[in-house]
Amino acid sequence: MKMRVAVLLAVFAVFCAADAQTCALDGLMSSLTKSVASAVLQKVTLSCIFVTARGSLVDCPAGYKPTSCSCGNACGSWDIRNDQTCHCQCANQDWTAARCCKIAVK
């Protein structure tokens, strides 16, 4: 079913691309896209947790991804390594924290 909707949207997009200003399907495309997006968003939730560790590294638990990091000692320089670990870049960090989130299907 999802594939059929995607193919239908692609066909409409190609059809309308030839004359985008007068395409009568623009309203239909917009309504259909909003309907599909609404249906998908009703079935998902965003779950976030806060994780801390001593030192300059903290890992998010399995299934979670870091969305932001915080560092001790007034350090504002950090990066996310391997899509899983918050790393504070300043020397001699006493703590590092991560906001870790995952998208779940209801």
Automatic annotation (TrEMBL):
Its main location: secreted. Residues 1-20 form the signal peptide. GO terms for cellular component: extracellular space. This is Resistin-like. The keyword Isomerase does not apply. It holds the Pfam family Resistin. Coiled coil: none annotated. Belongs to the resistin/FIZZ family. Transmembrane segments: none annotated. SUPFAM superfamilies: Resistin. InterPro entries: RELM, Resistin-like_sf. PANTHER family: RESISTIN (PTHR21101:SF12). Keywords: Disulfide bond, Hormone, Secreted, Signal. GO terms for molecular function: hormone activity. It is found in: Secreted.
